[in-house]
Amino acid sequence: MHDGSGRIVVQNLTKHFGQVGAVQNLSFHVEPGSVTGFLGPNGAGKTTTLRMLLGLVTPTAGWATINGQPFNHLGNPGRVVGAVLEAQGFHPTRSARNHLRVYAAAMGIPDQRCDEVLHLVGLGEAAHRKAGGFSLGMKQRLALATALLGDPQVLVLDEPANGLDPEGIAWLRTFLRSFAGGGRTVLISSHLLAEVEQTIDQVVIISRGQTMYYGMLDDLRKSQQSRVIAQPSDPNKLVGALQEAGLSGATPTQDGKIAIPGVTVQQVGDVAAKAGVALYGVQEERADLEELFFRLTSGQYAAPQNPPQFGQLPPGAHGTPPGGYAAPVQLPQGAQPGGWNPQSGPVPQAPPPPQGYDQHQGYQGGQGGNA
Ligand SMILES: Nc1ncnc2c1ncn2[C@@H]1O[C@H](COP(=O)(O)OP(=O)(O)OP(=O)(O)O)[C@@H](O)[C@H]1O
Q1: Distance in angstroms (rounded) separating the CA atoms of residues 179 and 333
Q2: How far is the CA of 22 from the centre of ligand 1 (A)?
Q3: At CA 138, angle to CA 137 and CA 141, rounded to 5?
Q4: How far is the CA of 329 from the centre of ligand 1 (A)?
Q5: Residue nearest atom 8 in ligand 1 by C-alpha distance
Q6: Helix (H) or strand (E) holding 205
Q7: CB of 57 closer than 6 A to ligand 1?
Q8: Three-state DSSP class for 352?
Q9: Model pTM greater than 0.80?
Q10: Looking at the record, which segments are called Disordered (predicted)?
Q11: Ligand 1 geometric centre to CA of 132 (Å)
């Protein structure tokens, strides 16, 4: 029925709604044992991609599989994939426990599992309360409980932190990390990097339906070249000494200090000491990850004809581009998610579409029932 891998593969996925190119040639893998963040600003195409992954929208081109199968071929999908696209749709007068019982019955799951998942998401005490009176954060938790009913191997969550307070976000982080730590697969979307930064290992950043970065979050972090800001007694003398030491690129800052890219505090201190220049202050500065995310995805509404290239980053940006950031689809240097070889070109070798798949008519025939 499926290969049991818990792997998500999205390959050249494309969706047009009339003139709107919602998703354009998107490719990425999500491996078990990791949490992948699917990030982009409002309207970037995140939900459309997740809906295609979950068989709710037919792609214009490309395909997506879970466990090696299109969602609609996954026999009893609720036992493979737990998905939350919207934390809505609860019957307002039905208690949390009864809401879950309806789904459990449909999936052939014993009632006892309902209380288990309510405890898992921290709603044990609210089991008897009506869902209509729940806060947004509680609804998120109840939606997650519903997704967990079938003890799935894969979790797909659209904006799961939406509506959660800081404590709720911290709880979600711990929960998802431990879920993935047990060898399961987690794909979560968000329009805020800061919200999921501490939760995710891998990241797919999209803007206007196209990949802007795909790789490990750590690689994105490391790719931002740091600079050292120094306040010397004699700036000219220090800049000269740095040049002599082969450390070029120093520029004055607006407040009378100098900024030296790609060096360590120790290197600057050593050069200054040797040159007899006093340092009244020296510190390393690294571009903020959120700022880089903003730069990668800005222009969504300014609508340039082509996605931004690094050379077009706004002035003042001192971070260097991550190796893989070259839109539309290119892997970051050193990032090899899903066995992709970053040296092999911008788009990974496309495996053949899953059996029974017709690009224009969707999935035809094949085994397994629909959800
Ligand atoms: N059913 C639809 N019909 C027409 N256009 C659609 C439809 N669904 C989505 N779109 C358009 O596709 C684009 C991507 O929308 P999508 O909801 O996937 O983005 P998103 O990244 O999930 O945004 P958000 O963070 O705001 O939820 C948007 O321009 C949206 O207006």
Answers
A1: 28
A2: 6
A3: 90
A4: 20
A5: 48
A6: strand 202-207
A7: no
A8: coil
A9: no
A10: 303-371
A11: 27
Q: Dihedrals φ, ψ of 257, to 5°?
A: -95, 180
The answer to whether the CB of 62 is under 6 A from ligand 1 is: no
- 35-77 residue pLDDT tens: 999 999 999 999 999 999 999 999 999 999 999 999 999 988 8
> Which of 48, 49, 58 is the best mutation target for the ligand 1 pocket, counting ligand atoms within 8 Å of the beta carbon and taking the most?
48
How many Å apart are CA 347 and CA 357, to the nearest integer? Answer: 21
| Ligand 1 centroid – CA 56 distance (Å) | 14
Q: Which domains does the chain have, with CATH numbers?
A: 8-80+152-222+325-363 (3.40.50.300), 227-285 (3.30.70.100)
Label residue 183 left, alpha or beta by phi (over 0 means left) and psi (-120 to 50 means alpha): left
Quote the CA–CA distance of 47 and 333 in Å, as a whole number. Answer: 28
Residue 370 has pLDDT above 50, yes or no: no
- Please, which residues bridge with residue 363 across strands? 357
Residue bearing the CA closest to ligand 1, atom 4: 17
Q: Is the pLDDT of residue 351 over 50?
A: no
* CA–CA distances in Å: residue 220 to residues 39, 86, 289, 344, 362: 13, 29, 8, 20, 35
Share of the chain above pLDDT 70, in %: 79
Q: Which residues contact 107 (CB under 8 A, 6 or more apart)?
A: 76, 78, 79, 149, 150
* CA of 47, closest atom in ligand 1: 22
How far is the centre of ligand 1, averaged over its atoms, from the C-alpha of 21 (Å)? 10
Lowest-pLDDT choice from 71-85, 224-238, 277-291, 332-346: 332-346
The answer, yes or no, to whether any atom of ligand 1 lies below 6 A from the CB of 17, is yes
Placement of tokens 């996605």 in the chain: 307
How do residues 230-279 score in pLDDT, each as one tens digit? 999 999 999 999 999 999 889 888 888 999 988 999 999 999 999 999 99
Averaged pLDDT of the chain: 80
From the CB of 55, is ligand 1 less than 6 Å away? no
| Structure confidence by residue, pLDDT tens digits, 354-366 | 554 444 433 333 3
Q: Is the CB of 23 under 6 A from ligand 1?
A: no
